[in-house]
Amino acid sequence: MIEAILPRGAHAAEEFGDTRAVVLFPDEEAAVAHAVPKRRDEFGAVRRCARRALAELGHPPVAILPGPGGAPEWPEGVVGSMTHCAGYRAAVVADRAHLSTIGIDAEPDEPLPRGVLRVIARPDEIERFDAAGPVRAVSWDRLLFSAKESVYKAWYPLTQRWLDFDDVSVTPDPHRRRFFARVLASAPDDLRSFSGAWIAGHGLIVTATVQARHGDSDGGGS
């Protein structure tokens, strides 16, 4: 599913359905030693996906630990992202020489809980998404949330800085199932623009975001 929205050079692994037991590296075991079983299962399953994706790049299995801000620490020369939600988990990796960053996110294709949209969305975004007819084929508020999550996952490894939901403005390109995101927080110009794509299926919305190429300001995707 996620392969359809990834840029060239990215490798992915995904799983659907119930989480199966995972053998973790000792350092990973320590990272979730006090976690509840659900958190431990999600942590392990998404790392199983990550190791499969890394194998496609020629990397042996390694521990993938949470770094500062929770972002995974990848092997030298690798960029990547992981995501999981009920019934789904995925990881994407790429050689840093081919891709500077990538962020992915998966969400259930269902409306956000009451009151959440006004917390995560700017008024102009609500207008744009609500007016984009084809976007209504999915839960557009959840799509907007997922797009911002994937933007943040692409942004943080480049800057080591947090973003609030109001710090990102997303414009959909519904006919191409793509979006363009502009970081409104203080940042160098080359770290302000991101482009992405989304796909829906299996009751899910999945987004992927990369740094925008020159000329992508019309909402070109990844």
Q: Care to describe what's here?
A:
27% of the residues lie in helices and 26% in strands. A hairpin with a 2-residue loop joins strand 7 (193-201) and strand 8 (204-211). It is globular. The protein folds into two domains: 2-100, Alpha-Beta Complex (Ribosomal Protein L22, Chain A), CATH 3.90.470; 104-211, Ribosomal Protein L22, Chain A (Alpha-Beta Complex), CATH 3.90.470. A five-stranded antiparallel beta sheet has the order 4-8-7-6-5. The longest helix has 20 residues, at 37-56. The chain has helices spanning 26-31, 37-56, 117-120, 123-131, 140-159; strands at residues 10-16, 78-85, 88-95, 103-108, 168-173, 178-183, 193-201, 204-211. The protein is of the alpha+beta class and 222 residues long.
Task: Summarize the model shown.
With about 220 residues, the protein is of the alpha+beta class.
Low-confidence stretches: 217-222
Discrete helix count: 5
Helix content: 25-40%
Write the CATH homologous superfamily of the largest domain. 4'-phosphopantetheinyl transferase domain
Form type = globular
Oligomer: single chain
Average pLDDT level = 92
Rg on CA atoms, Å: 17 Å
In CATH, what is the class of the largest domain? Alpha Beta
The description of the largest β-sheet is:
5 strands, antiparallel
Indicate the proportion of strand residues. Answer: 25-35%
User: How does the helix and strand content classify structurally?
Assistant: alpha+beta
CATH topology of the largest domain: Ribosomal Protein L22, Chain A
Number of strands: 8
CATH architecture of the largest domain: Alpha-Beta Complex
